Amino acid sequence: MDTRTGLPVVGMVGGGQLARMTHQAAIALGQSLRVLAVSPEDGAALVAADVQIGRHDDLAALREFAKGCDVVTFDHEHVPGELIRALAAEGHTLLPGADALQYAQNKRLMREHLGAKGFPMPRWTAGDAKAFGDEVGWPIIVKTATGGYDGRGVFVADSPADIPDGVEIVAEELVPLRRELAAVVARSPLGQVAAYPIVETVQENGICVEVLAPAPGLDEDLAVQAQRLAIDIATGLGVVGVLAVELFETTDGRLLINELAMRPHNSAHWTIEGARTSQFEQHLRAVLDYPMGDTRLTAPAVVMANVLGGEPGGMSIDERLHHLFAEEPGAKVHLYGKQVRPGRKIGHVTVLGDDMDDCRRRARRAAQILEEGYQH
Amino acid sequence: MDTRTGLPVVGMVGGGQLARMTHQAAIALGQSLRVLAVSPEDGAALVAADVQIGRHDDLAALREFAKGCDVVTFDHEHVPGELIRALAAEGHTLLPGADALQYAQNKRLMREHLGAKGFPMPRWTAGDAKAFGDEVGWPIIVKTATGGYDGRGVFVADSPADIPDGVEIVAEELVPLRRELAAVVARSPLGQVAAYPIVETVQENGICVEVLAPAPGLDEDLAVQAQRLAIDIATGLGVVGVLAVELFETTDGRLLINELAMRPHNSAHWTIEGARTSQFEQHLRAVLDYPMGDTRLTAPAVVMANVLGGEPGGMSIDERLHHLFAEEPGAKVHLYGKQVRPGRKIGHVTVLGDDMDDCRRRARRAAQILEEGYQH
Fold first, then answer.
1. CB burial of residue A3 (10 Å; 0-12, 13-18, 19+)
2. Mean pLDDT for chain B?
3. Dihedrals φ, ψ of B334, to 5°?
4. Within an 8 Å CB–CB cutoff, is residue B228 touching chain A?
5. For B151-170, what is the mean pLDDT?
6. Phi-psi region of B18 (alpha: psi -120 to 50; beta: other; left: phi over 0)
7. Which residues of A are annotated as a binding site?
8. Interface of B with A in 36-75 (CB under 8 A)
9. CA-CA distance, A100 to B276, in Å (whole number)?
10. Which residues bind ATP (chains A, B) (predicted)?
11. Which of A281, A318, B201, B367 is least surrounded by Cβ atoms within 10 Å, i.e. has the fewest?
12. Low-confidence residues of chain A, pLDDT below 50?
């Protein structure tokens, strides 16, 4: 407990933008998020009062960090399960726990487990990818079983020659897609689950560039089915905190599970302004064992556009903000305090309104001004 | 400039809840607010990464703080004008400037200046309060000219015996009130002014306990007149940042100016969730010279209720949060990290909805749970 405030202390391992935005939400709850960052220049380390510098795969650093935390949670999936188990065995509370988190850390485990439970997913194999490709037809999707994120560790294999050696992979059939969706829920230790409206996630080159909330024109039955699926997974795996289930909507109207994340997720950044309770507050409420918050939309249409780093040079980010705010006074900007590198997510923009197409146009334009500077 | 982010550095003098909530808003803009706090246990000092400890009336501390800030702004009105002028003369940018801020610091100066410009206000005097009371009729309102806040330094004098000696005061006629209103605007250095909808502020024992946005049943002409008045004051005084104009609506339907504040203000805390741009973001945008943000409401009815510290003992604040969130999943809580003292503002709660009376009931109930613990 923080004796200054009388409130429990939440620690987050990892100092990226998720921890940065969780700290923002923590402030309202009377909290000050404790952050374990790799570098003092990590996005969350720039803004949080209570920062320790250390690696997420260093047991001594984690142990030191967990001291004085009432609960430890995660900004990413890269803390090795055995370290989480070691700390739990020493009496620390880590949420989500290693038993749940393993399914977000290992794509093979997730597929084996959810497949055995009958959850729908594309045909896949952890075995002979070349034989699998010959069977289901090339091209196929190949993913490293662990360590990938933001499209890294995922590629399309056109032929057996594209299958890598010496790394644990899962191979998956290429599914005829209508689009990608995400079902985001949060679950408390008591088992209360709150579900956000289903969103559409728009990808370019394997990176999410836009999220549309609610998913436009989504069949009501399919929306309920998607929420149900995420609730069942959260409950079945005993997740505590936010669970994002990335989904495929196939051209023949089925839902298939793509990937899981057990932390605040890019597909729900829109909730900061677009839902009554943001995913960051919801994650904190879950790990603090508070009742979940209202997940309703605050506007008929909400669009989030990611801001990717552009080529170096040109207008400063400060000048870009001037132009953006002049053009879109209602665009909500979130910058992550990151050095700009081409293709790196450096922030996002959210636009709310009555018309999805209009919000989309405005959000894309706002993101573009931040990415490229102002051009008529 | 912060070389890590390429963005200008904003410093705020004072480490209270306004700085705390401004830091929250700063994070989204890629900023990390620099805070000058009196104590490391001040609300903002508990959550900001970049905190200096020092007094707001100590020139050396202010000078050290201003170094490396691109702009310095204020969490309160207690920085002496001569210190602001001294720093400005040394080349620092302080917003609002001393010329504007003096009218929020000194109630006599404000009345002289705005009165001379023809702005409407109750009859008042800085001269002989006893003679004034005899003239306008007792009781009258007496205010210390400087240093008051949150109802401190303001009282009702029933007779000449109640008039204090040896302190600079202004005396004011007691106006027949329908209610109190607030007009909040923000102005950029370029002169762009953005106005929030006019709100009703509900007072108990001289302390604001609730804010209703928009002010229920307010005549449209009067609302426009109130906005106009605040815009004219902001422009006339050259305010940069948020300006709150506290107003009386008289029983005969006139608007009279009560007080000014030149900083984010309690009467606009509802904007965090209730407006497209919060007053804290708006204040930052103003002092950073960014174009102002959209001030529209996000729901038809928004109510903010202040949370005052109750008697010591009873349920912990953590337990109270459990009960509150169970009863009102949509209530937005803001705790300021303060030690609880009876009557001290320790946070606020905002409720959004379609019906003002319903929002009011829910906001009061939520605040009450935090103040008193859960009682059926």
1. exposed
2. 96
3. -130, 110
4. no
5. 90
6. alpha
7. 107, 143, 172-175, 180, 258-259
8. 41, 45-49, 51
9. 37
10. 107, 143, 172-175, 180, 258-259
11. A318
12. none
Task: Name the nearest CA neighbour of A76 among A22, A132, A129, A2.
Answer: A22
Q: Which residue of B has its CA nearest to A339?
A: B5
Closest C-alpha to B311, from B280, B354, B288, B342: B342
Nearest CA in chain A to B25: A24
ipTM of the complex: 0.96
Measured in degrees and rounded to the nearest 5, phi and psi for residue A126 equal -105, 5
Residue window 316-355, chain A: list those with CB within 8 Å of chain B.
Answer: 316-318, 321-322, 325-326, 329-330, 332-337, 339, 347, 352
Spatial separation of the C-alpha atoms in residues A265 and A111, rounded to whole Å: 20
Written as six digits, the tokens of A105 are: 């850390």
Binding-site residue ranges of B for ATP:
107, 143, 172-175, 180, 258-259
What per-residue confidence (pLDDT) applies to A310? 86
Nearest to A113 by CA among A235, A252, A292, A233: A233
In this predicted structure, what is the pLDDT of residue A151?
65
Spell out the residues 6+ positions from residue B159 whose beta carbon is closer than 8 angstroms to its own: B133, B138, B139
Q: What is the DSSP string of A110-166?
A: HHHHHHHTT-----EESS-HHHHHHHH-SSEEEEESSS--TTTTEEEE-SGGG--SS
- Quote the CA–CA distance of A21 and A190 in Å, as a whole number: 25
Section B190-201 average pLDDT: 97
Quickly list DSSP for B170-238.
Answer: EEEE---EEEEEEEEEEE-TT--EEEPPPEEEEEETTEEEEEEESPTT--HHHHHHHHHHHHHHHHHHT
Q: How confident is the model at residue B151 (pLDDT cuts 50, 70, 90)?
A: low
Domains defined for chain B, CATH in brackets:
10-94 (3.40.50.20), 123-173 (3.30.1490.20), 177-372 (3.30.470.20)
Model confidence at B375, pLDDT cuts 50, 70, 90, reads confident
Question: Mutual orientation of helices B220-237 and B98-105 as an angle, nearest 10°?
Answer: 130
Half-sphere exposure of B106 (CA within 13 A, CB side): 16
Residue pair B283/B241 in contact by the 8 Å Cβ criterion: yes
Give the H or E element holding residue A318.
Answer: helix A317-327
Cβ neighbors of A109 (< 8 A, separation 6 or more) are A102, A103
Q: Which two tokens stand for residue A290?
A: 């508070």
Alpha-carbon distance A339 to nearest alpha carbon in chain B (angstroms): 7
Q: Which residue of A has its CA nearest to B9?
A: A318
Nearest-by-CA chain B residue for A273: B273
- Rounded Cα distance between B224 and A314, Å, is 43
Confidence of residue B371 (pLDDT cuts 50, 70, 90): very high
Tell me the C-alpha to C-alpha distance, in Å, between residue A274 and each of A102, B191, B232: 30, 30, 34
The per-residue pLDDT for A149 is 64
CA distance linking residue B309 with residue A168, whole number of Å: 57
Instruction: Test A32 with B337 for CB contact under 8 angstroms.
Output: yes
**b or e along B306-333 (b: 16 or more beta carbons within 10 Å of the residue's beta carbon)?**
bbbbbeeeebebbebbbbbbeebbbbbb
**Residue B160 DSSP symbol:** G
What 8-state DSSP symbol labels residue A340? P
Q: What share of chain A is helix, strand, coil (3-state, %, to 5)?
A: 30, 25, 40
- Counting Cα atoms < 13 Å in the Cβ hemisphere of A78 gives 16
pLDDT of A94 reads 98
Q: What is the pLDDT of residue B150?
A: 63
Question: At a CB cut-off of 8 Å and minimum separation 6, what does A317 contact?
Answer: A335, A340, A370, B5, B6, B7, B30
Rounded Cα–Cα distance for residues A95 and A187 (Å): 11
Two structure tokens written together for A82: 């055995």
pLDDT of residue A376: 63
pLDDT of residue B149: 64
